[in-house]
């Protein structure tokens, strides 16, 4: 089984939903390298036996820290449960994170339906596309 690098981010009104989701799929996440923004990671660890590397809270730079991993092609999947009905003071950071995921081709689930599809694919072993031959990988330093 390949080890994948997965990040969890959830806006305040989505944290309970994230905890419930990760708890339901805890068996899938075991054995992978997990990351999260601060409070989301703490809440998940309180309810599961998962070990998560926690960054700062999203508004304090955690989104950017996760974005840095994406920019270095060190993440394989992000589950980012966003609250589309609440304005976020750090919206530029969120937009930048989503943009770099598009640039690097990193799948991002922004709602529970998409998260479920991606996690089921992960469980089936359908993430082999992340192990593309070098000829399909972006060349460093080339825009």
TrEMBL record:
| Catalysed reactions listed for this entry | dihydroxyacetone phosphate = methylglyoxal + phosphate
User: Can you quote a single GO CC term?
Assistant: cytosol
Could you tell me the EC number(s) of this protein?
Answer: 4.2.3.3
Q: Which organism is it from?
A: Paenibacillus bovis
Q: Where is the MGS-like domain?
A: 1-143
SMART domains reported for this sequence: MGS (SM00851)
Q: What is this protein called?
A: Methylglyoxal synthase
Q: Which Gene3D superfamilies is this protein grouped with? A: Methylglyoxal synthase-like domain
> Which NCBIfam families has this protein been placed in?
MGSA (TIGR00160), PRK05234.1 (NF003559)
Please verify whether the record's keywords include Lyase.
yes
Stored InterPro entries: Methylgl_synth (IPR004363), Methylglyoxal_synth_AS (IPR018148), MGS-like_dom (IPR011607), MGS-like_dom_sf (IPR036914)
Check the record and name the Pfam families matching this protein. Answer: MGS
What the entry lists under PANTHER family is as follows: METHYLGLYOXAL SYNTHASE
**Functional note:** Catalyzes the formation of methylglyoxal from dihydroxyacetone phosphate.
User: Which residues does the annotation say bind substrate?
Assistant: 11, 15, 37-40, 57-58, 90
List the active site.
Answer: 63
């Amino acid at each position: 089984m390949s080890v994948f690098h997965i990040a969890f981010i959830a806006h305040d009104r989505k944290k309970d939903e994230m905890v419930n989701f990760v708890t339901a799929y805890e068996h899938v996440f075991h054995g992978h390298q997990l990351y999260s923004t601060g409070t989301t990671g703490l809440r998940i660890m309180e309810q599961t036996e998962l070990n998560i590397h926690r960054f700062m809270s999203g508004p304090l730079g955690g989104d950017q820290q996760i974005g840095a991993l994406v920019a270095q092609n060190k993440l394989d999947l992000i589950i980012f449960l966003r609250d589309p009905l609440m304005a976020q003071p750090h919206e530029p950071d969120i937009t930048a994170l989503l943009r770099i995921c598009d640039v690097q081709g990193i799948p991002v689930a922004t709602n529970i339906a998409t998260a479920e599809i991606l996690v089921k694919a992960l469980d089936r072993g359908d993430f082999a596309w992340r192990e593309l031959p070098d000829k399909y990988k972006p060349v460093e330093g080339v825009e």
